[in-house]
Amino acid sequence: MKLGTISVLWLGAVSTAFTSVSGQHLNANHGSKGGRVALHSRRQLQEFSLLCDGLDASEVPATCTADPMPSCWAARSPAYCPADQSFDQLIAARTTAVRSDADGALASGFWFHLLEDKGAAYLLTATEGFDPPEIFCCVTDPNDLETSCSASLPNPVVIKTVDGHSGSGVYVFPDGVAPGAFSTELLTGTTMSLEDVVAGLSSLNPNKVIVEEFIGDIAGDLPTEYKFHMFDGQVGAIDVIANRGTGCDCYAVIDLECNRLDQQGCFENVDDGAGVYDSDGCTAINSGLGMNKAGPVKGNLPLCSALDVDPCDIAKLAEVAQLISSTIGSYIRVDMFMDNGNVRLQEYATNHMNGIRYCASKVDSLGCLDPCFLGDMWDALGVTALEKLYGGPQGPVPAALQNWLADTPDDHCSQIMSTPRAVTHVSSPFTCTEKPTPSPVAGATGSPVVGSTTTPTSSPTVSPVAGATDAPTMSPTGAPTGAPTASPVVGSTNAPTKSPTGSPTASPVVGSTDTPTTSPTGSPTGAPT
């Protein structure tokens, strides 16, 4: 970890301070947002100016020369959100419940878990009038690819299992793939034959494999991915993966106003029931330990430097996410990308990063760093115990998925191949204003204030990732319904102005060091999604 002497000393001071002040549990003044009425005049004790460990120059490929590029490793800080606002733990609990009794969840009116199957996801997207990648072929045995999918394989294609995640069971061939011949697989940069693909897929024991169209950017690489965290039509955060498969892959989290939400790193909540608060009544965060654990967001993905985000693209993507999320209801992640100005809806995820961590926080109206706001959005959707468990209520099961759990994989393939895309959605006109998405800056930029008894005369120094107290959302017409309370460029006056360069040398989208889990169908899901 590249921490200078001053940073290391500060790290120790923060860890010591955490031990001494963060053990204060919920009380009348510190528990609820309604009970905290005084504006906090300084930032949370455990908060660095930025929780990001800069990459060394030796870690950056020579090809990474322009933004966005890998910048730094994210802190993985223990946070002490109340159990009903711990986003990662809510995801983990929901996943455990639905995987133990998928039929029971469906009988209770919850069907979001069906969308973990990419075939079911295609059916929902296609029948709702949105634009998924075209599926050329569907088989239930990888050995049938050569015979059943021979017409599509010479074309630019993506071959994938229907229940893999984070690059597991996904093969991308911009120039097609054939038996007995070698083609470059984009995610790994290795050459493979169709026989190699079949062997890799067979080891995963998938119940279905699909062959879909490859859609690249202008350079022929994978387009930037936008993953919208959605709560019944409301946007919580947007995860962005740039440069996937190029060696310059990186990860960022933004809001609808393009403010960075990732500059305080990632969070892994500690189950403490009612939550733990510091002396200011802010949610306790052990940033010292978080910096000691700094590493990839997932796989080998570091945080990105400054992003080049088109606000009109964000508006178009948000419109689609809001519409499909309103159909789904309960929490869902909607994964999309842009294709020549058009929104392509790739897939859905119900189990973000396997419930291991998340990387979004913002400063609330009281000056506290809030790592709980996504969990708070989850909790606000539910009224009944089941709604709170499953992330909100859902409407009727869509007609295309009525018999999904009862049907066989062969039935699924037949239904997928007989359901054409019927794109009816047309993006609304938007008036777009360029919005900066500044890069993270690694390392601490000053000393924390410990036990201050005087009231500062200035307002809190707001991190450049600070957003609104309420998550900004966007109406279908593109008009924001909530605005951030801080500019994305406001920050510490002594923060470095350049992000460190550097990147991992391995592809960040293949494999993971996190513990594999199983999908609702029983097959491995691999790395965090």
Which descriptor suits the 3D outline?
A: globular
* Biggest beta sheet attributes: 5 strands, antiparallel
Using the CA coordinates, give the radius of gyration: 23 Å
Amino-to-carboxy terminus distance: 25 Å
Helix/strand/pairing category: alpha+beta
Task: Please outline what is shown here.
The chain is built from 11 helices and 20 strands. The chain has 529 residues and is α+β, with helices and mostly antiparallel strands.
What does this structure look like?
This protein is an alpha+beta fold. 20% of the residues lie in helices and 16% in strands. The protein contains 11 helices and 20 strands. It has a 5-stranded antiparallel beta sheet with strand order 13-12-11-17-18. Strands 5-10-6-7 form a 4-stranded antiparallel beta sheet. A hairpin with a 6-residue loop joins strand 8 and strand 9. Helix 4 packs parallel to helix 11. The longest helix has 18 residues, at 311-328. The chain is globular. The two termini are 25 Å apart. The relative contact order is 0.24. The model is unreliable at 1-48 and 442-528 (pLDDT under 50).
What does the secondary structure layout of this molecule look like, with pairings?
Elements: H1 5-21, E1 24-25, E2 52-54, E3 70-74, E4 76-79, H2 87-100, H3 102-107, H4 118-127, E5 135-139, H5 145-148, E6 157-161, E7 170-173, E8 183-184, E9 191-192, H6 194-202, E10 209-213, E11 225-231, E12 234-242, E13 250-254, E14 266-269, E15 276-277, H7 287-292, E16 303-304, H8 311-328, E17 332-339, E18 342-349, E19 362-363, E20 369-370, H9 373-381, H10 385-390, H11 409-417
Parallel strand pairs: 4-14
Antiparallel strand pairs: 1-15, 2-3, 3-16, 5-10, 6-7, 6-10, 8-9, 11-12, 11-17, 12-13, 17-18, 19-20
